[in-house]
Predict the 3D structure of the following.
Amino acid sequence: MKKVVAIVGPTAVGKTSLSIKVAQTFQAEIINGDSTQVYQGLDLGTAKITVKEKAGVIHHLIDHVAASEEYDVSRYQEEARKLIEKIEHPLIVGGTGFYIKAVLDDYDFRGPKRDFKKENLYHEYNNQELHQILIKKDPQSAQNIHPNNRRRVLRALFLAEGIKRSARRKKDKPRYQYKIIYLTLPREELYRRIETRADIMMKKGFLEEVIALRNKGIKPNILGYREMNQYLEGTLTKEEALTLMKRNTRRYAKRQETFFNNQMQTIKINNDEQAFDKIIKELALFW
């Protein structure tokens, strides 16, 4: 079974610099594990690694698609898995836990994409009536989906026309032999880093980056870009937009931590002066 390492953690925890040192130590290639860094032109707002910071380490799935292009977890899973098969020491680095878990575990995204025309066929049914239809078509799935989660009920109904949702592969079955290093920091220090990074982003020209994207007709519904666009549209002052961006980033970091703690089996390492040595010790007999 192929061996894969992932370095995960909340935004601003310090994954990038540590991952470069780890990659250099094991001659690894890095696969981006951040759902926003796949887009070209979204640089400062996604804290994308620079050419200089890469220090010669090969990176994949960064600046991968145009900012106007659709990119989802299903496509990421397919492309990341192809890379894993080619790379001797694949190292996934990022904070999008769902994307990373979908690659490492046996998530199955087969089935129809969202079809609004099909959904309209059910628009006259209320949530309870819709759930009753699912009970008849795929009772096992119906037990695991709340009637008020209309979108999931609809998807399960459409999947029941082919491979039933309940018959799909289990999500927590590992596809690879892997180790996940989860970098952490004390909450106060992490929040301080988030605040500082936001201020540095603005000084480096983040607002100009947002304006350049707007001029191309691109308004990403992504943290940071969303708040700056509110400022440009006059609904917030610049100071209010920056304050909101910092607050929302803190909240996002908290959600990331919740996912890593509850959804992934990780080796938790505090990102202090001993972090690199601890990671090397964990990986020495693995790779």
